[in-house]
């Protein structure tokens, strides 16, 4: 058995579960590296990462470097004499950092690599309509998410599952996989698999204003997948006109594909708004989609049924 001295690197809630699993199993965490405290929210109050909050509760040694190549930070890192580093939802490491420990640096990624390499694998798996995803541990190398795979675990995606729900399921599955990986490294019986070079791989691109806007000319399936794949964050959005020259932003947190039994056939322009029996429907390329939970710009998130109690859509209202 190897005597492990572990440095854990991570920032958001997704990373906390893995760190907590290691602490609860009495592994020696000699350091935790996380993002610096930053102002956030409307009040711009200084907030610390979820990983820092948990690490403080366990009296763990915390480092918050702004520059991972800084000589002072590298000196602190070497002084910890770690022989294994674990990375979960952190930033890209310079080679001098990931090559430092004797037993390497491994990363947990929320996809079945080599598919969905990149910043937002959970979101894109749903946006692309996948029915299966998973988590992978792999040893970090020079490129992003390309290193030799250690272990993988698969998970099915439900038809109406949101990114938020899938995130939490993968978080717990991933923490178990981290523990499994560390135990095998500790025993010295790890074998790895080089990632296959597939021609048609999906990329988990960073989410932005362009790829989170709804195109109402797309199919109802594609639109439904985009909405649930971006909920609860960063949220799919659209611009609509309520029969005047003004444009309004609308975020959509939840939508359903209706049975269409009581709806007219779609023979209208994509984006057309229909209010029917206290429900709000939008025409897509091939069907209607029902909006369930939304947020008008400058307003609180609300159910559509509550919106319709005090908001009227003009006959010429349309999603743009």
Q: How is this structure best described in words?
A:
Helices cover about 25% and strands about 25% of the residues. With about 325 residues, the chain is of the alpha/beta class. α1 (about 15-25) runs parallel beside α2 (about 50-55). The relative contact order is 0.11.
**How many extended strands?**
18
Proportion of residues in helical segments: 10-25%
User: Can you identify the CATH superfamily of the largest domain?
Assistant: Formyl transferase, N-terminal domain
**Corresponding CATH architecture of the largest domain:** 3-Layer(aba) Sandwich
N- and C-termini, Cα separation = 62 Å
Low-confidence stretches: none
Could you please say which CATH topology of the largest domain applies here?
Rossmann fold
Q: For this structure, what is the CATH class of the largest domain?
A: Alpha Beta
| Number of separate domains | 2
Report the portion of residues in β strands: 25-35%
Give the integer mean of the pLDDT values: 94
Instruction: Name the overall outline.
Output: elongated
- Given helix and strand content, the structural type is alpha/beta
* Widest beta sheet: strand line-up: 5-2-1-6-7-9-10
Q: What integer value in Å does the Rg equal?
A: 23 Å
> Number of helix segments?
8
Element string (H = helix, E = strand): EHEEEHEHEHEEHEEHEHEEEEEEHE
Largest sheet: 7 strands, mixed
